[in-house]
Amino acid sequence: MKNKFFLSIILGCILLILCACVHEEFQIVPTITEKPTVISSFPFATENKSIATSKPETFPITIRDVELPLKAEGVLLPYIDVDGEVAYRNVDGSVHVLESALALFKNGYLVVCGFGEIRVTNANGERLSVSCAENEHLRRITEREGRNYIELVSPSAKNFEICEVLGNGYLIRSEGKRYIIDITGKVLVSCEHENYYSLTNDIVLGLTYGSEHLLDKKILIDLRTGESINVDGKYAIFDSPVDDLRVSYEDGLIWFIYYLEDGSEAGMGYMNMKGEIVLSPIFRLAEHFSEGMAAVIFDSVDKGFSYIDVEGNLAFEEHFAWARPFSEGLAAVSFDGEKYGYIDKTGKFVIEPVYCRDALDGPLWEKFEDYVDKLSMFHNGYAMIANAEEGWAAYIDKTGKEVFRFSVPVSTEE
């Protein structure tokens, strides 16, 4: 009798173990849904527990303030001058500034970082050239008591160097090792990845590329808390810094491609800054969120681009063959993929679709490269349009009124 009793106990334990193993096996397979859903638990992100405990505590840093010329009325816009060179001018034509590098006019200034110096120009064309030490980096432009400054950061000790500014933190190197520190110099993590990018001022992406996407290693680091999350290789994150020309994470959502075990793409979706899936990867194509909306193509609906909000709801019914992110309340779209105009957040055209999309390529791309994408979106109240057949480009305001026009060289490519 006792033998039968013990035998039943042993058989019961074996059955419980088998059931637990089967349950665990099927729990790790994500489900791709047919419509946008908010998923509170998705088995792809894990808390990082491999950070070395022997890392240093702090690295002291020094911040040097340099006062800038006062801000001035107007905006400096890049264009092609009569000599075929990239230059900048004020919208009223009163200022003409030559510059050796492309940059966007932001927060009242044009800022260009050169070798050993930073050049800052206001809308009046007043320029300040600031010499930088070898290990001195531009952190930000700030305003205090009505005066404007650039902050330059450098190490206060000789045992480390600053490699890069990462939003509200820094990537540093000391004795052959790299660390992420916050703005006070406190060490947050030891670096175990090849590359680090600012997604926002407070969130850093660490990335090591594998031979294929499934072998990529990724980590999300919160500079405010020092917490970090490992991201599964099935999710390819677009590694774009805070000042990237197109990508923004201002709405707190990161767009990604989801890969199946065989390496094929299953769709695109969105996660939050904690590594949690917010919108399932059911989109064939997806743009980044900007001003609360994103242009997407549903995998199950072949109607072109639609705009959704951060909860996955359709913002309006219209569909487009071509669509761009919203910027300053307007987005460039096209019904036929050729002529484009600008819509507001209700989906209505405020600037009619009369501009040729192909005109933004060719000679303009040769001069402005990736900046063409940003310049065709509204920035500081203006956007660039072009006419390839007549050989000109222009800036328009938000009413569609042309501000100024400039000639575009004819492309030498066939």
Briefly say what this structure is.
With 414 residues, the chain is mainly β. Helices cover 9% and strands 42% of the residues.
Topology:
Elements: H1 2-27, E1 45-47, E2 61-67, E3 76-80, E4 86-90, E5 96-98, E6 105-106, E7 109-114, E8 117-121, E9 127-131, E10 137-144, E11 147-155, E12 161-166, E13 169-174, E14 177-182, E15 187-190, E16 195-198, E17 203-208, E18 217-222, E19 228-231, E20 235-237, E21 253-259, E22 265-272, E23 277-286, E24 293-298, E25 306-309, E26 322-323, E27 331-334, E28 339-343, E29 349-356, H2 363-368, H3 371-375, E30 383-387, E31 392-396, E32 402-407
Antiparallel strand pairs: 1-19, 2-11, 3-4, 4-5, 6-7, 7-8, 8-9, 10-11, 12-13, 13-14, 14-15, 16-17, 17-18, 18-19, 20-21, 21-22, 22-23, 23-24, 24-25, 26-27, 27-28, 28-29, 30-31, 31-32
Description:
- With 414 residues, this protein is mainly beta.
- It has three helices and 32 strands.
- The strands form eight sheets. It has a six-stranded antiparallel β-sheet, with no helix packed on it. A five-stranded antiparallel β-sheet has the order 1-19-18-17-16, with no helix packed on it. Strands 6-7-8-9 form a four-stranded antiparallel β-sheet, with no helix packed on it.
- The protein starts with a helix and ends in a 7-residue tail after the last strand.
